[in-house]
Design goal:
The protein has a 22-stranded antiparallel beta barrel. Strands 10-15-16-13-14 form a 5-stranded mixed β-sheet. Strands 3-2-5-6 form a 4-stranded antiparallel β-sheet, with no helix packed on it. It is built from 15 helices and 50 strands. A hairpin with a 3-residue loop joins strand 36 and strand 37. It is globular. The two termini are 43 Å apart. Among the domains are: 97 residues, Sandwich (Immunoglobulin-like), CATH 2.60.40.1120; 130 residues, Beta Complex (Ferric Hydroxamate Uptake Protein, Chain A, domain 1); 45 residues, no CATH class; 87 residues, no CATH class. By secondary structure, the chain is mainly beta. The N terminus is likely disordered.
Length: 994
């Protein structure tokens, strides 16, 4: 008996699940819409009074295990009335949910006050949901916006993991900065730090584009505002684990370089013209060698054929792991996530690691008082290339194009690196150096909200955007290519930077109705912000890489000729604002809105420190009018218009209006300081006045819906680095010296092409047409600039000498002068500005989404049209006279040789100049993303206690249709300078809900 007694607890634990299982039963069914009978995926099904729950799959089906005695199931879904159904004796419970018109009123989150009803909103806003950006295999949120919203142009600056994109809204409206203002949960965040933030934490993105939307942000709103709302919790506990694995590969460039046989043939051709370039040229020119010896050495070179792109490029590995939990009660809710991401770049020695945490919490202490916090922390470690772009021999992309194919990485006999055409081997250089950056990013906000009486709400928000960056660049002693003072004794550069921005906003909002027909909302607020940026840098030359401690560094100073160079900086800026925002709506028919803001900024001159900004807007819901409602096929129709002013203070320094002095100057043999910038007390804000007219519509039982917007933006008092008279003692000064206009049309269209029980097909299209013009400049410009700004032309218009072909008689390059006459004389003064601009005047995106039972397929294209790009790589590799020692393009094999040859490639001894022949059409259509997902049927996962299982595959940047001959037509500038190409990414993952 004593032996049996200890086994009783274990026996009870063993039998308990069986007993409980016997006391449970499974209820299943389908949840559909009462309006059209379509299945509703994502409906929450909860057993009332418990934490037992389930979620419907893509076919609206659910299954839930409940106690034998039954109970009440609660069905809830956004946009539908929550329904409670008592469980009967049967095991099947089908439910139809009724549309809730109140919930279907879309809201717009502006960052101030409570979310606004979109039906009464007078501004222009684009909304991007989390479903469009979740699990997209890129590290930064801004790149995920490519092609997703009308009027928003997003260009990848680089394929380096973690590099921010170049974002502009409704065209280039400034020469200083066009980056929009980013607001995350009420806290302004810096635009360049998205690599440290987890995009999967985002719930929605609202892009405010016109004055009615963004003028409330005053001096910060002229470039548009992107309001980011992160996920928050709800009732019931939900957890998710998301794992993603993938590979990154390079895209195929159309620009073909010579192989060994071709380069040997070409160097022989150059020698025939007396141009002895490259190794073959040196061999042929060497008079000490016999003809047989020359051919023997050339034959040895012919046996080598190195593909230098394979040397520097690779297939990288990327992975992501994420665990999130959300939940709460009627009074409190939370959201918690942890994310790890690592991404290897497609070029060796480049990669990114990110660790991020987020915690959001809301508590409703009573019906009147609530408070909450939003906190995120991210840490990134990034390995960059020694030089990522430009005509620099330390740039692997450039080196891969210029290194000769008959040069090996290492001598197979000695194991030593072989010297390339630049005088060193970049592979050795990269192995002997590193360029690393570590960053800590914290965005934290908190709010208090109190409702005194119904509709009268006071709210205060406080937040901080903090980042700390440590840069470490090192070249070991003995590395081949050093520009240090002490030769090849090593270089160490350390940099530390810290940015902290604190903001506090307090608002009082009163919303009330008068006899139910008149809706009024008034919001007053005060905001103050203070920012500080500081850092220091340290450069050491002649540093032994084994010296680590301060004592060792001091010893190195004495023994190794160590030369330190130390510098630092510390700047502050402040902003104080008062604002008023109001809205009046009559019977959901007419709406009038206005806002006024007064800003004071420390960045501007003492005479222009304060400025006022405003906007007015109106909308008319035409659908309620009899002359429209009589047409049954029209479901919604709203006309809106707005006009207002916004300001800009980004792009100028904290001391731009002050007189500055610099050191390092000498006079009469004595060291001293001298003025480097004169004071400018009249430096003031750039101001943008925007007119917007828009139409929102929905027809054919909401099968087709969309928006059309026309806008006209005029920016005055542009910040321009303006040339000064020599008598001033200065060369230039940042002045308010010009005006610029952007006009355009935006079209957004959503169609539900097929809607059936098991199959749906929907399409989303957005297209933007933008016309940019520099209206006025207060100074003369250099007409020979390849790109720049000129009155009456778009910003970034190319001014080039026009190419006219090749003279078949002698192989000379031909050009057209300003009068249109053909000449063989290149004159930079003949440059004409008629070849287009680098900023795309037309761009957009197209998405088709298909669902079949548990399968979802999404195919997304983005495109741009009408812009040009100066292909500097093509200029470099089609220049045998100046760069014949480097590898050349296969185009040079068509070079002119004999009188009468018809070709577009001049003779090899012709001087190469920049002309319109180097300008290429950079239009493209890119298959940006293909996503395939499968949701496991609920009946397969019911017994596993899992709520959902999603398996997905994605391909990013799959294929690009373009006539551009370089690596990538997607370039954030006017000249393609061997930039790090954007990779092609293939990923697969699983998302488990439990």
């Amino acid at each position: 008996m004593r032996r049996i007694l200890p086994l009783i607890p274990a026996l009870i634990l063993f039998l308990l699940p069986i007993v409980l299982q016997a006391q449970q039963r499974t209820i299943s069914g389908t949840v559909t819409s009462q309006e059209d009978g379509s299945p509703l995926p994502g409906v929450n099904v909860l057993l009332q009074g418990t934490s037992l729950g389930s979620i419907t799959d893509v076919n609206g089906r659910y299954s839930i295990a409940i106690p034998q005695q039954g109970g009440v199931l609660v069905f809830s879904f956004v946009g539908f009335i929550t329904q409670a159904r008592e469980i009967g004796p049967g095991d099947v419970l089908d439910v139809q949910l009724e549309v809730d018109a109140r919930q279907l009123e879309e809201v717009v989150i502006t960052g101030y006050g409570d979310p606004q009803d979109k039906r009464k909103y007078t501004g222009s806003v684009a909304q991007v949901g989390s479903n469009l950006i979740e699990n997209v295999p890129v590290a930064t949120m801004d790149q995920m916006l490519q092609g997703r919203a009308a009027g928003v142009m997003v260009t990848a600056n680089s394929g380096q993991p973690g590099t921010p994109a170049f974002v502009r809204i409704r065209g280039l409206s400034s020469l200083a900065s066009v980056s929009p203002l980013y607001i995350m949960d009420g806290v302004p965040i810096s635009a360049g730090d998205f690599a440290a933030l987890n995009p999967n934490d985002i719930e929605s993105i609202n892009i405010l584009k016109d004055a009615a939307s963004s003028s409330l942000y005053g001096t910060r709103g002229a470039n548009g505002v992107i309001v980011i709302t992160t996920k928050r919790g709800g009732e019931g506990i939900r957890m998710h684990y998301n794992a993603q694995y993938g590979i990154t590969t390079r895209t195929n460039a159309k620009f073909d370089m010579m192989n060994t046989a071709q380069k040997i043939q070409f160097e022989r051709l150059m020698a025939e013209f007396g141009l002895y370039q490259g190794e073959v040229g040196r061999i042929l020119q060497d008079g000490s060698l016999s003809s047989a010896e020359k051919e023997q050495r050339i034959a040895e070179l012919a046996r080598i054929n190195t593909d230098w792109t394979d040397v520097f490029f690779r297939d990288g590995i990327t992975q992501m792991h994420e665990l999130s939990a959300s939940g709460g009660t009627e009074r409190s809710n939370f959201y918690l996530s942890a994310n790890y991401r690592t991404e290897e770049g497609i070029i060796k020695e480049s990669d990114l690691q990110r660790y991020s945490l987020r915690f959001n919490f809301d508590h409703y202490a009573s019906e009147k008082f609530s408070f909450g916090v939003s906190n995120s922390i991210g840490y990134t470690k990034t390995n960059f290339l020694p030089t990522e772009t430009g005509n620099n021999v330390n740039n692997p992309v450039l080196y891969a194009f210029i290194a000769n194919p008959y040069t090996r990485v290492k001598n197979p006999d000695t194991g030593e690196f072989e010297e390339g055409p630049t005088g060193f081997n970049l592979v050795e250089q990269m192995e002997q150096s590193h360029n690393r950056q570590e960053q800590l990013k914290i965005v934290s906000g908190a709010y208090l909200r109190y409702e005194f009486i119904p509709g009268l709400v006071a709210k205060t928000n406080w937040g901080i955007d903090f980042s700390e960056t440590l840069d470490d660049f090192r070249i070991n002693a003995g590395a081949p290519n050093q520009s240090g003072i002490t030769g090849e004794q090593g270089v160490l550069t350390r940099g530390y930077g810290r940015l902290a921005s604190i903001i506090g906003t307090t608002t009082l909002q009163y919303a009330f109705n008068i006899k139910q027909d008149h809706n009024v909302r008034v919001l007053v607020g005060q905001e103050m912000m203070r920012g500080n940026t500081n850092g220091f840098s340290f450069n050491g030359y002649g540093l032994n890489d084994k010296l680590r401690s301060p004592a060792a560094i001091a010893e190195g100073t004495a023994t190794n000729n160590f030369i330190p160079d130390v510098g630092g900086f510390n700047t502050d800026n402040a902003l104080f604002s008062l604002f008023l925002d109001g809205l009046y709506a009559y019977r959901d028919r007419f709406t009038v809105s206005f806002n006024v803001r007064r800003d004071g900024s420390s960045r501007f001159g003492t005479n222009k420190r304060y400025a006022n900004f405003y906007s007015v807007g109106a909308s008319w819901n035409l659908i309620v009018e009899d002359f429209i409602s009589q047409f049954a096929f029209i479901n919604d129709l709203k006309l809106r218009a707005s006009y207002g002013t916004q300001g800009r203070q980004t792009g100028i320094g904290d001391f731009q209006s002050l007189a500055l002095y610099g050191s390092g100057f000498s006079y009469a043999g004595q060291q001293g300081i001298a003025p480097v910038q004169p004071a400018n007390p009249d430096l003031q804000w750039e101001q943008t006045a925007t007119l917007d007219i828009g139409l929102d519509f929905s027809v054919l039982n909401e099968r087709i819906s969309g928006t059309i917007d026309f806008y006209n933006k005029l920016t005055t008092d542009l910040f321009i680095d303006t040339p000064l008279s020599r008598t001033s003692g200065f060369t230039s000064l940042n002045l308010n010296a010009g005006d610029m206009r952007n006009r355009g049309i935006e079209v957004t269209l959503h169609t539900r092409n097929i809607v059936r029980r098991d199959f749906t097909w929907s399409t989303d299209l957005n297209v933007t047409f933008n016309d940019n013009e520099v209206v006025k400049l207060n100074f003369e410009t250099d007409a020979t600039r390849e790109t720049g700004f000129r009155e009456g032309l778009p910003l970034g218009t190319f001014a080039l000498v026009e190419w006219a072909g090749v003279n078949p008689a002698n192989g000379d390059p031909l050009y057209r002068d300003k009068n249109g006459n053909i000449t063989n004389v290149y004159n930079a003064d003949d440059a004409v500005a008629k070849f287009g601009t680098w900023d795309p005047p037309r761009f957009g995106g197209l998405t088709n989404t298909f669902t079949y039972k548990g399968i979802e397929l999404s195919v997304f294209f983005s495109f741009q049209h009408g812009n040009k790009l100066l292909n500097n790589q093509r200029f470099f590799n089609n220049n045998p006279l100046n760069f014949g020692q480097f590898n050349q393009s296969v185009e040079q094999l068509r070079a002119w040789r004999n009188p009468g040859d018809i070709t577009n490639v001049p003779r090899v001894t012709a001087q190469r100049e920049f002309s319109s022949q180097d300008l290429e059409d950079a239009s493209f259509i890119r298959l940006r993303n293909v996503s395939l997902a499968y949701f496991l049927p609920q009946k397969l996962i019911t017994r596993t206690k899992l709520k959902s299982v999603k398996i997905y595959l994605q391909a990013q940047n799959l294929y690009t249709f373009t006539e551009y001959s370089g690596f990538d037509p997607e370039d954030a500038g006017s000249v393609s300078l061997s930039q790090y190409p954007v990779p092609r990414v293939f990923t697969g993952g699983i998302d488990i809900g439990f």
